[in-house]
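Researcher: Quick sanity check before group meeting.
Model: Go ahead. Protein one:
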Amino acid sequence: MVEFFRRDDGLWRQGFAGDTLNVAWALRALLQPADWRIGYMTRIGRDGFSEAMLAFLREAGIASDFIIREADRRPGLYTIETDASGERRFSYWRGESAARRLAADPQALADAFSAARMIYLSGITLAILPPADRDNLFVALGRQGDRNFTVAFDPNARPALWESREAMQDATMRAAALADIALPTFADEALVFGDADPQATCDRYAAAGCAEVVVKDGTNPTRWMAGVETGRSPVAPAASVTDATGAGDSFNGGYLAARMLGADARAAIAAGQAVSAVTVGVRGALAPKQALSEAMRHQSPAN
C-alpha cells in the first residue's frame, strides 16, 4: 500500500508498506540474495503510485515477477499518526484497490506458488478478497503433505475489514488448517475468539493443525510451541519506542528468517524480538535494512 506518515514537523512523508510487504522487507534484509529469492505477489495499477511502487520493490531486491497490472484500479493508501508513546491511529483508502483481485485467477496463483519454498499469508489479505477468490487461494495453498512449500500464516485480525465476526473466524481457521506455522497476536485473538490467555491461542492453532505456533503478546512473554517443544520467551525492552507500526510484521520476518537459516524456535523468537525492537524505534513500518540485519546478527540465530 501507499503509506503516508506524519513527521514531527507536521508534514507528511510518503512511502510504501503493508503487513505482507513489511515481512518481505525484513526477509530481504536478513537473508542473503544469493541464497534466498524473496518475491511479492499482488496486483497494482498503471498510475504513478503503481510505477513508483514497482520501482521501490525492485530497488529493495524483492522480485516482482508475479505482480499483475490492472489499468482500471490503483493501490490502496493509508495514513499513520502516532502519539507520544508510539501508539498509532490509521486511516485507510483501499475499497477499490487492485489488490482485492489478487486471487481472481487460479492459474496465476498456481504459477506463483509452483517454485516457492515458503508462502507467507496474512489475515488482512483474506479480509480484502471476495469469498470466491478466497476459496481460490485456499485451493492453491493445498494441504500439508501434498505440497512442496511451507505456509506461514499471521491471522492479523482486523474486524473492520470483515462483513461479520463469524466470517472472520471461519476464514481464519480455514487458513490455519492449511498452515504449517501460525504467528498470531494475543490481543487480536482475545478480541476475535475470546481467548483467555496466550496458551489458549496457542492450543487453538495447534488443534487446527499448525505444527508451529508463536503467540506475540506485546511486551509480555512470547508463548510458543514447535513440535513437542513449548516455552515462554521474555521480551527485552526496546531502546526507544517511536512508532509501533510494523512491529509484529518485523517480528515475523525475523522469526522466519532465523528458522530458514536453521535456528531453533527459541533462538528464532529472540531474533524476531530484536528485529521488532529496531522497527519500533523509527517512523513508519520499514526500518533500514542494515539496522535489521545487525540486530539479527547479534542474536546469532544458528543452532
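Researcher: Fine. The other one?
Model: Protein two, sequence then structure:
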Amino acid sequence: MKNILEIACFDATHVKQISTTKTDRIELCSNVNVGGVTPDYDDIILARKNTNLPLYIMIRPRGGNFIYSSNELELMKADIAFCKKNNSNGVVFGLLNENGNIDIENTAKFVEISKPLDITFHRAFDVCSNPFKAIDDLISLGIKRVLTSGQKATAVEGKFLLCDLIKYANGRIEIMAGGGVNAENATELFDVGIRSFHASAHKLLDEKMISDEAKINAIINVISRVS
C-alpha cells in the first residue's frame, strides 16, 4: 500500500495552506474542541475552491457519543447530499449502537447514500467494544478506511493494537493512524509498520509557523521512505 498522509483542517484557510504541500488528502471539519463536527456549508464550498487535493468532509452533527437520534441521522444524510452536490471526494462518519458495536443498519444506509463518494469511518472506532469484529463489519459494509488511535488517547500509545489491526485487515481496509501524530513521532509509528497517517493542521500550523511547511514536510519525509 502507498504511504499516505491526510491532514485534518478546521477551516478553509487551513485548507488553502495545506494544499501547497505534498499531502495526499484533506479532511475538513470544525470545532477542534470536540474532536471535529460537520463544517458550515459555506466553509465546504470555499474549501473546495481552495484546493485540488482530495477533500473529505466530516459528517458529525455534535460532539459526544456516536449514537444518534432519528433527527440527527436525517441531518447527517442531508449533509452527505450537500457534500456530493458540491464536489467533495469523500465523507467521514462513524455510527455506533448502545452495545459498542458498529450500527450496521444505519451505516449501510449511509454507505448507499454516499455513493460514489469515498468513506472513512472515524475514531468512533476507538470506543468499539471489539475492534476486530468492528473491522470485519466495516469491511462487509464496503468502508474503505478506518481512522483510529488504536483505542488509546494517541496513536503512539495505541501503536501495538494498530499493528495488530493492520495485520488482521491484511489489506482489506486501510488502517489510518490518527491522534497526536506529528513530525517527532511519525518515525516511531512508521518503524512499527504503520503506513497511513492522519495529522491535524490545528497542531501543525500554530501561530509561530503559520506559513511554515517544515513540520508537514518532516512527516512526509518519514512516510515517503521506501518500506
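Researcher: One line on it for the slide.
Model: Residues 70-85 form the longest helix (16 residues).
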